[in-house]
Amino acid sequence: MKINGIPYRAIWRTEGGAVEIIDQRWLPHDLRIVRLENRAAFATAIAQMWVRGAPLIGATAAYGMAVQMAADPSDVSLAETWQILHDTRPTAINLRWALDDMLRTLAPLPPDQRAVAAFARAAQICDDDVEMNRQIGLHGLEIIREIAARKGGAPVNILTHCNAGWPATVDWGTATSPIYHAVEAGIGVHVFVDETRPRNQGAHLTAWELNSHGVSHDLIVDNAGGHLMQQGAVDMVIVGSDRTTARGDVCNKIGTYLKALAAHANGVPFYVALPSPTIDWTVQDGLRDIPIEERPAAEVTHVQGRDAAGRITTVQIAPDGTPARNPAFDVTPAHLVTGLITERGLCPATAPALAAMFPESARAPS
Ligand code: MRU
């Protein structure tokens, strides 16, 4: 997608072969591009959320593996790199998916062939992500089109949580892809953007990208969604996912579950947009079996923004020494999900439907 008219992906290789990212910690106020030169830099970038969003975390790990293979392609290095990058963030399954894919590709090769193969595979993972998200957009577009038709062409009001937009992926985003496709198709849409405390990915990133693309939106506090749904102001919810289980439980940014409950109570359809690498086929019960990342208390007690002098700064909002809990994700049970928008189409959030849509990946229940 474009920033100031210039097309960007969220991660790319320069002509000289370096891997660069947008350091998302400074958006929307500052566009800082960073070159990741070694394994430690990749691990830091993922753990400290310079890059974030499940698909982008996976793509970044793939390139991290490639950069390490150029430095040391040995078996020991391969195994260590899988572990080091895997341990950066626990919840988004795309990370393990991408690392396993790289390992499968590289392990059978002689070490002197691994670097070239690793860069090629990482590039393919990125291109595949872009294409999957584009397909998600086309399938989601049909849902938006139907709602627009029911409303006689009046704008379709969509609520989204966190940032499942293009900066969370290589390009297009998952939840935002149907929105961009609807705008391109000339369908009126308006987006309610949850600010998404504590890190405010909605306020910092989703509002920024929608603004860059001229998509009508309002930023709302996280607590406003239920009220807007009661008022009939929301036609549908679309969120992303960090890990969706084989039976359709959806783990996503903290607060997603409350939106799903409010949507259910108010008869608002609740869709989850996700590429298939976000499905964890080894897990059924999301509440029991998905590790929920606990992040630093300082993310709750402090907020980052830009001061009147234009400096990006962090301020404390809680009393000195306030204890805080910071679970970063929650699980929405499948029965609250109206449908999963995947690259192969709209899928009910049930084990049989998911298995029928992805027969090559589904496992027999144990
Ligand atoms: O902690 P983050 O910012 O990595 O969390 C991101 C989300 O929860 C997104 O909704 C999810 O990764 C889907 S991104 C297409």
Can you describe this structure?
This protein is of the alpha/beta class and 366 residues long. The chain has 2 domains: 2-128, translation initiation factor eif-2b, domain 1 (Four Helix Bundle (Hemerythrin (Met), subunit A)), CATH 1.20.120.420; 140-357, Rossmann fold (3-Layer(aba) Sandwich). It has 12 helices and 18 strands. A 7-stranded mixed sheet has the order 8-7-6-9-12-17-18, with helices on both faces. Helix 2 (54-71) runs antiparallel to helix 5 and helix 5 packs across helix 6 (176-184). The model has no long low-confidence stretch (mean pLDDT 98). The site of 5-S-methyl-1-O-phosphono-5-thio-D-ribulose has 18 residues, from helix 2 and strand 11.
* Mean pLDDT across all amino acids: 98
How many helical elements? 12
Helices and strands, in N-to-C order? EEEEEHHHHHEHEHEHEEEHEEHHEEEEEH
CATH homologous superfamily of the largest domain - what is it? Translation initiation factor eif-2b, domain 2
Strand order of the largest sheet: 8-7-6-9-12-17-18
Task: Give the arrangement of secondary structure elements.
Elements: E1 2-3, E2 6-7, E3 11-13, E4 19-22, E5 33-36, H1 39-47, H2 54-71, H3 75-86, H4 93-106, H5 114-150, E6 156-160, H6 176-184, E7 189-194, H7 201-212, E8 217-220, H8 225-230, E9 236-239, E10 243-245, E11 250-253, H9 256-265, E12 270-273, E13 279-280, H10 286-289, H11 298-301, E14 302-306, E15 312-316, E16 329-332, E17 339-342, E18 345-347, H12 351-357
Parallel strand pairs: 6-7, 6-9, 7-8, 9-12, 10-13, 12-17
Antiparallel strand pairs: 1-2, 3-4, 4-5, 10-11, 11-16, 14-15, 17-18
Helix pairs in contact: 1-2, 2-3, 2-4, 2-5, 3-4, 4-5, 5-6
The protein binds 5-S-methyl-1-O-phosphono-5-thio-D-ribulose.
The site of 5-S-methyl-1-O-phosphono-5-thio-D-ribulose has 18 residues, from α2 and β11.
